[in-house]
Each structure stands twice: as C-alpha cells, then as structure tokens.
C-alpha cells in the first residue's frame, strides 16, 4: 500500500473518531446560566420543534422553559411553553412553538428548564431562525428539575453544522 493511501486512511479514521465523539456528547447542567440579560433589539420569529422520546413519561404537567441564542449575546427566552390542557410534550409527540425575540445569527446554544413532579425526556430540539441555518440539539435524556440543562457550542468551530 502506498504511503499516500496510508495517510489518507489515517485521516479518514481520525475523522470517524471525531464524528463519533460528537454523537456521544450529552447535555450539561448550567447552574450559573443567567436569563436576566435579554436584548430587545429587533424582533424575529423562531420555530422551535420538540420531539418527546418514546421512553418519556406518558404525559407531563411540568412547566417547560427554553433559552437559546448565538455567540454575539442575542438571547431568546420563553419562560413557559406548555399549556396544561394542550397535551404538549406527551410521549412520542412533536410540538412546535413560535417564539419571538431578538434577531440572532447562527444559534449555537440551547438550555431547557423543567419544573414539576412528572419528568420529561425530549428526544430533539430543532430551532429554525431567520438569520441562521436550522440547528438540531439531541437530548434523549430526562431533564433534571429546577436547573438549566442543555448545550453550548458557541466555542466550537463547527457549531453551524450541528
């Protein structure tokens, strides 16, 4: 086998390992996350699509909030998405919410906040925005209660592909 072919195989192998690492990333708790700094510059609309895992509780009465934004400090915040009678966030459901907030560039972080007795396990959260490509965050884990929990990729060079 030629030296060039070996080098090429080596880089392909490294690429596969790096991609596998990304797939295994899990959401993290962020105890010091602060939603008090909200910019109100401009007004843009975002579609946020939640899928709830098939291994979630059958239904939840919990209150679910979301905060997401870009690397430039533009933060969008919705303190409570659910309506108790709407059956949002039931097992195997897909729920779409329209959220208005400041105009952001590429969304690179999302945090969810859950409070209540039932528990909830989102599968994915997909955010569509005017100035950014759609981005999907893969949770597939129960959200702990009373803490912001999610992903922050704004320090990652490849966050736009997530």
Structure description:
The protein is mainly beta and 162 residues long. The protein has one helix at residues 3-24; strands spanning 28-29, 44-52, 63-69, 75-78, 94-101, 109-115, 122-129, 132-138, 149-152. Strands 1-9-6-3-4 form a five-stranded antiparallel β-sheet, with no helix packed on it. Strand 3 and strand 4 (75-78) form a beta hairpin. The longest helix has 22 residues, at 3-24. The relative contact order is 0.23.
Précis, in short:
It contains one helix and nine strands.
Percent in strands? 25-35%
Going across the biggest sheet, name each strand in turn: 1-9-6-3-4
Shape: globular
How far apart are the first and last residues' alpha carbons, in Å? 36 Å
Count of helix runs: 1
Question: What's the total count of β strands?
Answer: 9
Which structural class should the secondary elements be placed in? mainly beta
Could you tell me the mean pLDDT? 82
Secondary-structure element order, N to C: HEEEEEEEEE
What is the C-alpha radius of gyration, as a whole number of Å? 18 Å
Largest sheet: 5 strands, antiparallel
Low-confidence stretches: 7-24, 157-162
Helix content: 10-25%
């Amino acid at each position: 086998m030629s030296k060039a072919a070996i080098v090429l195989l080596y880089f392909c192998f490294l690429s596969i390992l790096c991609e596998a690492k990304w797939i295994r990333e899990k959401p993290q708790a962020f105890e010091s996350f602060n939603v008090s700094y909200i910019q109100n510059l401009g007004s843009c609309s975002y579609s946020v699509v939640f899928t709830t895992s098939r291994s979630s509780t059958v239904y939840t009465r919990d209150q679910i909030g979301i905060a997401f934004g870009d690397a430039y400090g533009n933060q969008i915040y919705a303190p409570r998405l659910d309506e108790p009678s709407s059956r949002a966030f039931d097992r195997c459901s897909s729920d779409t919410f329209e959220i208005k907030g400041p105009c952001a560039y590429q969304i690179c972080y999302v945090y969810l906040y859950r409070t209540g007795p039932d528990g909830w396990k989102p599968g994915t959260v997909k955010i569509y925005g005017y100035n950014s490509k759609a981005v999907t965050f893969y949770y597939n884990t129960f959200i702990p209660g009373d803490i912001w929990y999610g992903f922050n990729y704004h320090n990652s060079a490849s966050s736009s592909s997530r």
